[in-house]
Every structure is written in C-alpha cells, then in structure tokens.
Amino acid sequence: MINQWQTPEEAREAGWDALVGAEDFFLRPDWMRVLQDSAGAWMGYLTARADGRVLAALPMVRATRDSPWSLGRTDLLIRHCAEEGMDGAAGILTGLGEVERLMPSMMCGGRHLGRTRLMLHPDAGAETAHQVLEQAERLASRDGCRSICLPYVDASDRIQRDVLRERGYISHLSGQFASLALPGEGFMDYALALPARRSRRVRAERRRIEASDVGITLAPLDAADIPRLAALETRLFAKYGMTGWDPKRSEAVLRAAAERLGDGALVSRAVLDGTVVGFALVLSHDRAWFAHRAGFDYEAVGKLPLYYELLYYTLADHAPRHGVRTVHHGIGSTDAKVSRGCSLSAQYLYVKELS
Predict the structure, then answer these.
(1) From its phi and psi, is residue 183 left (phi > 0), alpha (psi between -120 and 50) or beta?
(2) Nearest alpha-carbon partner for 190 in 243, 181, 232
(3) FRET pair for 189, CA 20 to 30 Å: which of 45, 128, 146, 272?
(4) What Å distances lie between residue 149 and 60, 137, 145, 174, 179, CA to CA?
(5) Is the pLDDT of residue 241 over 80?
(6) What does the alpha-carbon distance between residue 124 and residue 110 come to, in Å, rounded to a whole number?
(7) What is the C-alpha separation between 343 and 104, in angstroms, rounded?
(8) Closest CA to 309 of 271, 255, 335
C-alpha cells in the first residue's frame, strides 16, 4: 500500500524514521519540516507499506520557474551541468532543446544538494521502487508538472539507478559528493594525515589564523546572529553569480533550523572586532556532521583562509569531543575539498518528461 502525506510529521507517524540511514540527515522529518517552513513550495511525502512495515519512502517538492534553487531545479541544473562539462549533460541539453519546457518539475528524493534518494528497506527490492516512482509520476502529472527529477542520485545506489533507467529516465553526471573521514584526535592528527606538501600548507594556514585578530568559535546556532549570517551567505551567493538572492530566504532557513534542531545546529564562526565576518552551519546526525551553509565578509576577511578554517580545521579540532568521525561536505568546489582530504562519490541527475 502506498500512502501520500502532506506533512513530515504525518510521514514520521507512518514509520518514515525506520528508513533514515546514517547519511540521511536531510531526509529526517525534523529537517524536512525546516524546509517546509522556509522553502515556499509545495512538499509531499510517499510511503509504501507491506506486512505492517514501511518498505520505502520518498519526499517530493514542486519546483517552478520562480523557484530560486539554481542547483536544485531541473532546468537550471541541467544547463549548469552542461556548462561545467559534466559527462552526458551537453547531449541531454541538446536533445531537450529548451530545458524550460521541463518546468514545473517535481523534484524527488529531497531538496538537498547530493544523495537525493528513494529510501528502501533492505528487504524491499525493485518492485517496491517501481511502485513508489509510478505513484510519484502519477501525482506529478496530476499536479501539472511537465517532468519529474531526482537531481543527485549516488553512483552506489544501484537499485534506484536501475529502476529509474527501466522507467525511461535519462541521466547525466550532476556532481561529486565529498566526505571527509577524520583521523586521530584533533587538527594536528588531521593535518599530518595529509600528503606532506599539503600538510605543511594546512599547518601554515592555521598559524596565520592564530596570528590574526580573528577569533574562532563553534557553538549552537544563536538566533541573535541570524540576520548577520543571512547577510554573509547572500554575499557568498553574489560572488558566485546569484545576485538576486533575498537574505530573508536565508533567515527563514536559519530560524527554522534554530527552532527545530536546537543544539544539533552548530555554527563555526569567525569574529573580528565583535562582528561575525565568516560562518559555516554544521548539522549533526548519527556521529557525523553535515556542512550545510556558509558566508563571508570578503572585504574584512581579505586573504585569510577562513573558508578552510571554519569548514575543515575547526571541525577537525572539535569533532572528537562530539564523537564525530566524518564530515560530509556535499557537492561543489571539488578541487578544494579533495585538497583537504575529502573522498568523492559521483552523483547523477535522472529526469523524465511527463505527458
């Protein structure tokens, strides 16, 4: 039996949590509530049950041409991947012609960037996956969507990839998901585990931070900081071409995270003369951290390596006392992430046009 739910709380009552794995922070109902409160889009949830157990679960969100998600929207993501030369994207873009014809599009598997998926119980197989995706396609078509898309399916997810291919989805590379396994008991153990030349550079960058007037902290997200953090994230987006971003959108996500996640939402902060000049939002789940958002005052920061300090070095220092051994850094800035010790897993966009 397949059921549709309108809220993550209903999905949780139906047994959703039983399918959430160690790398599924962004598929937890608590986080999906954060998104539902802040995304400004319709969201829905499917579950499949048999013999009294939940066998599959799939989140859905409706994206339109007005949705500001440049890397989480079918048309813009395909175009972006083609421009970046990702394998298969240019051919799909050429074949489709105007990718705007895919909008509105039902995005499935989560609103996060990397490892969007249909969650399956170990005892469930391809038949269950087919049933859930068939229902999702039916709902998307009924809703007026012109396509259905899973934007970041992990290369290792063989059942899902096989089923999507069998159902007529086309695919191309959409990114590389980066994860960092932390060795030892702090920054120095992390740094010394890197190749010798990189290790020397990393330790030199840490010394530059320590010699500066910038103070670094890691603590739960403070609601009083939210307007400043939103402004810093907006500056980061502007640097990479997203000049139309409204900081109120960032504020909405940060406020929802503070209210819903409590101490599970941590902020790595850089403070100069009493003002936050850089931050990274880090979310906790099952002995892992998920680096989610960041922002910087580029004029105040200058050439200080605050990006690496806040997202790598500070986290390496604090992780052991939190019982954390892995930091998931998601997609984007691949070279920078690999240079700091991350391993990569390929992600694939799957899309199907609907009648």
Answers:
(1) beta
(2) 181
(3) 272
(4) 10, 10, 11, 12, 24
(5) no
(6) 20
(7) 34
(8) 271
pLDDT band at 138 (very low <50, low <70, confident <90, very high): very high
- Exposure string over 253-263, b if 16+ CB within 10 A, otherwise e: bbbbbbebbee
Pairing of the two strands 105-108 and 147-154: parallel
Query: Is the omega angle on the peptide bond into residue 104 within 30 degrees of 0, that is, cis?
Result: yes
- Residues whose CB falls within 8 Å of the CB of residue 53, separated by 6 or more in sequence, listed in order: 15, 18, 121, 123
Residue 338 banded pLDDT, cuts 50, 70, 90: very high
Mean pLDDT of 167-185: 96
**C-alpha 62, offset from chain centre:** 17
Tokens of 7: 């809220």
Predicted structure pTM score:
0.93
Q: What residue has token string 């987006």? A: 237
Q: What is the pLDDT of residue 76?
A: 95
Q: Are 278 and 270 in contact (CB under 8 A)?
A: yes
What does the mean pLDDT of the chain come to? Answer: 95
